[in-house]
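From the shared-data thread, chain only:
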Amino acid sequence: MAATAARTQNWWNETLHKLSLHARVTLLAAVAVGLAVAIVSIAAYITVRQQMYQNLDNSLSQRVVQASRNGVLTNLENLRRASADALGLSDIRVGVLSANGDQYGAQNSPLPPMGQSELQVATGNRSSSLRTVGARNGGSHFRVVAVPAKFCPVGFSDQCQDDADFLQPGALVVAQSLGPIDQTLHNLGIVLWAFGLIGVIGAALAGNAVARSGLRPLARLTGAAEHVAATEDLKPIPVSGTDEISRLAMAFNAMLHALAQSRDRQRRLVGDAGHELRTPLTSVRTNLDLLAQADKRGGLRAEDRQQLLDDVRAQMDELTQLIGDLTELARDTPQVRNAELIELSNVVEDAVIKVRRRAPGLEWDVQLSPFPVWGDERLLGRAVTNLLDNAAKYSVPEGAEQRTDGLPIGHVTVRLQDGVLTVTDSGPGIADADLPHVFDRFYRSSEARSRPGSGLGLAIVKHAAEQHGGMIYARNAPGAGAQFTLWLPHAATQTR
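Structure, as tokens:
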């Protein structure tokens, strides 16, 4: 049985999964109402049946007890002369059962069913008997009641009145037909079945209407998704209401907006990358063409040849840096994967050492305090290095050379306190019009176009900060140049 039940459940689950959501909602409504109607109908049928039987039993028992006490029907002469029809009780059969099993009844009326239960009452072994005899719709369905009764034999009416010793022990048996009750219950069953069927059909129609109305927004959403998949048109779909389908549509629109932004960023990245790569590649090609033409004419002087080769190497370094920056920005992941516990002060210290070697003419004011974070040490190191490189580049006045007296030509202030890294340079600062765009990819202000760089360094800093759950912002420091502030959360507050 367990295996059969498991197979039935599997078949039912497979069948449901094959149906559409519309059909499942309709079926669910019909089944739910059908079960409710069935439970209510069964409860009503049983309640009515029990109440009718209870009322019949109470009425029949009271009449039989009363008849046994007044002695009219227990007088066999009276019983034989007066039939149930004469008493207006055509649906009732009356009889007397003696202790030795003799049965007495009216001459023109059939006897009630008498069996072992009634005989036990007649012999005094039971106080009363109440049972149902026969089958429904069989024509002989009765409710039979038997109570103890002293009866007077035929021919001893006068003696029984004078002397109670002539009364013999027995039982008064009354059987009432259950035909009217059976017919009433039959009609009730038909009515309940009819209304139940009407209710199930109505529930199925209502479920179909509700499913069609409720799933109409879902159908529009499905059509919109199919349209996006077919045309790559990321326009949002109209949303009305505040139900679950509307929330799903708003989430779908948010997803479309994110996809549109990602696609725009990719397009801008590809377009800007092509534009930025074109310049160093053109320079490399020009220098190589000059070398090739010079070799055909007998070659260049050693100094000129070395200068061209140095230019080619510088352009190749710029290409390598640009390609690395593009690769880093192309990783459009929401957060760092495989993060590890690192000490941010060590990362900043290593970056300061590296940048200081590249900018020996600057004064560095560095104060660091320990601060643990979860993150990618390589990405954070690159971000901090970009910040310091940017500060070193703009702290040196354009066209300035190393001073002969050994004094610094600029200074950079680096502070790390409670996860807040502040880098301040001594340059001219950032124009107000450029402040909102300094972290945009490939963005370079008009003052910065004459300096080396691709415009991706600060974009990588912002990218790293966002991936580590932090933030970066820029401002002009009073009495100094530009100031960049990078904040990262403590390792204790981060989830791995």
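The chain has a mean pLDDT of 78.
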